[in-house]
């Protein structure tokens, strides 16, 4: 799996095709997708221009990831969900298929099934049952490998203890404000690779509020970047790469897409690696929240498989 890939969450239809084309054109060989991002068809249009007989790339030269959404956890729904992503992406197999979250939502077409009061309708399917259905996708040749996303250490162990095909990746939010040191060393000890989503702090997350700190504008990063004659984004991405974390920066801007891949020709000193580690605020940006009694609270906190009650 190439250590830097293109993220496609939040890349609007109408923009994501150009982003994928720009990425493949400047050397990216790893594209991170998900059914829930609602743009796999357009990603597929870009892939079709690059991959296949008579095209610039063989299928095996590009690493493509997709994710099973929460409404498709029922074992009877898993294969169809995977086949839908494959059809949208125009591929015959995925390199990696992840369970997007450990929580299952009610089955159906609606990505966010809700009651009248706005609360989410959950399902009591256990993520272990879903995992077994995902294992069959390997047996059928639809995916090369399977993994997890947003699983805590305990849930990761839970899957490992019962898996016939082990999870190879846990994709989690990770950036200098949430450095995930404990989860990282745990995953390393059980041979699970960590991929960082929102590696640049996802300043464009839909619920960002102006009083939250902006990682890319942190003056301490600007100072480091200036010393290396790099941009803050490149310093952050280099930090991920140097600590052995795969990262999938999202951008729809060709110059940034290119810049984000140019992180292999310099290295950060040990001191700067530690300095960036010290920016950790243990703060999650990517947890869906709702307003309850005038307060913003974690939306799925009461779900029995909500991952973020554990320390890591
Ligand atoms: P855009 O897509 O408009 O280029 P993350 O990967 O952490 O989710 O961050 C994505 C956000 O970071 C997007 O707003 C994206 O903007 C922005 N971004 C991506 N690469 C860079 C870069 N090299 N410099 C500045 N901002 C960037």
Bound molecules: adenosine-2'-5'-diphosphate
DSSP, total strands: 10
The average pLDDT value, as a whole number, equals 96
Distance between the first and last residues' Cα: 24 Å
Low-confidence stretches: none
Q: Estimate percent helicity.
A: 25-40%
As a whole number of angstroms, the C-alpha radius of gyration is 19 Å
- Please state roughly what percent of the residues sit in beta strands, choosing from under 5%, 5-15%, 15-25%, 25-35%, 35-45% or over 45%: 5-15%
Largest sheet: 8 strands, parallel
* Secondary-structure-derived class: alpha/beta
Order of helices and strands: EHEHEHEHEHEHEHHEHHEE
Q: For the largest beta sheet, what order do the strands appear in spatially? A: 1-2-3-4-5-6-7-8
Number of helices: 10
Cα shape: globular
Care to give the gist of this entry?
With 312 residues, the chain is an alpha/beta fold. 34% of the residues lie in helices and 12% in strands.
Task: Explain what the structure shows.
The chain is built from 10 helices and 10 strands. By secondary structure, it is an alpha/beta fold. The strands form 2 sheets. The chain has an 8-stranded parallel sheet, covered by helices on one side. Strands 9-10 form a two-stranded antiparallel sheet. It is globular. It binds adenosine-2'-5'-diphosphate (A2P). Adenosine-2'-5'-diphosphate is lined by residues 7, 198-204, 216, 231, 233, 249-253, 256, 259-260.
């Amino acid at each position: 799996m190439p250590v830097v890939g293109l993220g496609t969450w939040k890349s609007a239809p109408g923009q994501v095709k150009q982003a994928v084309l720009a990425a493949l054109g400047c050397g990216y060989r790893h594209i991170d997708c998900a059914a829930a991002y609602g743009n796999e068809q357009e990603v597929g249009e870009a892939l079709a221009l690059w991959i296949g007989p008579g095209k610039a790339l063989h299928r095996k030269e590009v690493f493509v990831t997709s994710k099973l959404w929460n409404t498709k956890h029922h074992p009877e729904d898993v294969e169809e969900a995977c086949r839908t992503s494959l059809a949208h992406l125009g591929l015959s197999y995925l390199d990696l298929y992840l369970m997007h979250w450990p929580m299952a939502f009610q089955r159906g077409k609606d990505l966010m099934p809700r009651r009248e009061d706005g609360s989410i309708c959950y399902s009591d399917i256990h993520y272990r049952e879903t995992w077994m259905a995902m294992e069959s996708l390997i047996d059928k040749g639809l995916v090369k490998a399977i993994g997890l996303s947003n699983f805590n250490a305990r849930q990761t162990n839970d899957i490992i203890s019962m898996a016939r095909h082990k999870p190879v990746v846990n994709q989690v939010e990770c950036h200098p404000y949430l450095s995930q040191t404990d989860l990282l060393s745990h995953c390393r000890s059980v041979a699970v690779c960590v991929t960082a989503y929102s590696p640049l702090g996802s300043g464009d997350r839909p619920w960002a509020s102006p009083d939250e700190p902006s990682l890319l504008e942190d003056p301490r990063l600007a100072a480091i970047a200036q010393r290396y004659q790099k941009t803050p984004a490149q310093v952050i991405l280099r930090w991920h790469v140097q600590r052995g974390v795969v990262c999938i920066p999202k951008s729809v801007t060709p110059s940034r897409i290119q810049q984000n891949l140019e992180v292999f020709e310099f290295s950060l000193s040990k001191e700067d690696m530690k300095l960036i580690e010290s920016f950790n605020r243990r703060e999650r940006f990517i947890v869906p929240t709702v307003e309850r009694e005038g307060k913003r609270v974690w939306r799925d906190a009461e779900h029995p498989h909500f991952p973020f009650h554990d320390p890591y």
